[in-house]
Design goal:
Layout lengths: L8 H5 L5 H50 L26 E2 L19 E2 L6 H5 L24 H6 L4 E3 L7 E2 L3 E2 L17 E5 L10 E2 L16 E8 L11 E8 H6 L3 H7 L5
Parallel strand pairs: 3-7
Antiparallel strand pairs: 1-2, 3-6, 4-5, 6-8, 8-9
Length: about 280
C-alpha cells in the first residue's frame, strides 16, 4: 500500500517576496546610502584638500629657494600682464591676467590670452626644475602644482588658481600710498625680516584678475575655495628664537571661512600681510 505524498502547504503559501518586503529593503538601502554618501563626499574633499596643501607647500618652498638665490628677495606677486615682457618686471612669479569683466566669463576659457602663464614667471624653474619660457599667448599647457583640485574645469583654463600676497610687491601701495616692500621687493633675510607672513592663498577663480591677492579687495567677504568650510593658506616663518640668518620655512594651514575674512581686516592685515611689520 502506497501513501500519496502531500504537498507542503506552508511552502506553497509563501511567495518569493512581497511588495512590502521589497519596499523595506529599498528603504534600508536608501537610509544606508544617505549615511554613507556624505562621509564619502567628505573623505573625497579631504583628499583634494591634502593635494591642495601639498601644492601650496611646494610653491612656497620654491619661493624661499628663489629668495635664497636672489640675495634674500622674494619673487614679485605681479599685476595683470606684467612679467618677462619687460625687464623691470622680470621677477613677477606668474605672467597674465584678465579684465574685471572676464573673471567669471567661462565662455572665454579657450580664447587666446585667457588665464595665467606660470611658465613665463620667475618662479617656474624653482617649481618644476624646467627652464622659464618666453610669454606666448597660444601656450595652453597647465601644470597641476599651480591648481587646487577643487576648482573644477575653469581652473584648467586659468592654469593658476593660487594667488601670492600682493603686499609683497614693490609696486603695492599700503596705507598712505607708499610701498612697504622696497624697490627690489621683499627681503626675508635683512633687518626688516618678515615673520609669519602669508605667501599664498587659495583664492576663488571668479575673483582672480591676476595672480596677486590684495587683502581687503575682492575677497574681503571670504571668497575663497573651500574644503569643507575651510580655506588653505601658505605662510613663511622662522623657527622660534632662530638667528636672523637662519633659513625661513614654509607651512600650510587651513582657516575657517569666517577667518578668511577676519585676517583681511585692518587689525590683522599688518600682522599677516604687510612685509614691514
Amino acid at each position: 500500500m502506497h501513501t500519496a505524498l502531500r504537498p507542503d502547504r506552508g511552502a506553497a503559501a509563501r511567495p518569493g517576496s512581497t511588495l512590502i518586503e521589497l519596499r523595506v529593503v529599498f528603504a534600508v538601502i536608501a537610509v544606508l546610502a544617505g549615511m554613507l554618501l556624505p562621509a564619502l563626499s567628505k573623505a573625497k574633499e579631504g583628499a583634494r584638500s591634502t593635494v591642495c596643501k601639498s601644492n601650496l607647500r611646494q610653491l612656497s618652498i620654491g619661493m624661499l629657494v628663489y629668495a635664497d638665490d636672489s640675495q634674500g628677495f622674494l619673487c614679485w606677486p605681479g599685476l595683470t600682464d606684467r612679467g618677462n615682457t619687460h625687464p623691470r618686471h622680470a621677477a613677477d612669479w606668474v605672467f597674465g591676467g584678465r579684465p574685471d569683466a572676464d573673471t567669471n566669463d567661462r565662455t572665454r576659457c579657450k580664447t587666446p590670452g585667457y588665464g595665467f602663464h606660470a611658465e613665463a614667471g620667475s618662479l617656474f624653474p624653482y617649481e618644476l626644475s624646467r627652464a622659464r619660457s618666453p610669454y606666448r599667448e597660444t601656450f595652453i599647457e597647465s601644470f597641476p602644482v599651480h591648481r587646487c583640485p577643487s576648482t573644477g574645469p575653469q581652473s584648467k583654463a586659468l592654469r593658476v588658481t593660487f594667488s601670492m600676497n600682493g603686499l609683497l610687491d614693490p609696486g603695492a601701495p599700503v596705507g598712505d600710498g607708499a610701498s612697504e616692500a622696497g624697490p627690489k621687493g621683499t627681503q626675508i633675510n635683512g633687518e626688516r625680516r618678515p615673520s609669519s607672513k602669508v605667501l599664498l592663498v587659495n583664492e576663488d577663480p571668479c575673483t582672480m584678475k591676476n595672480a596677486a591677492f590684495h587683502p581687503g579687495g575682492s575677497a574681503i567677504k571670504g571668497s575663497f575655495v573651500m574644503h569643507d568650510g575651510r580655506v588653505d593658506i601658505a605662510s613663511m616663518d622662522a623657527p622660534m628664537d632662530a638667528p636672523m640668518d637662519a633659513p625661513m620655512d614654509a607651512h600650510v594651514e587651513d582657516l575657517r571661512d569666517r577667518q578668511g575674512g577676519e585676517i583681511q581686516r585692518p587689525g590683522f592685515q599688518a600682522k599677516m600681510f604687510h612685509p614691514s611689520t
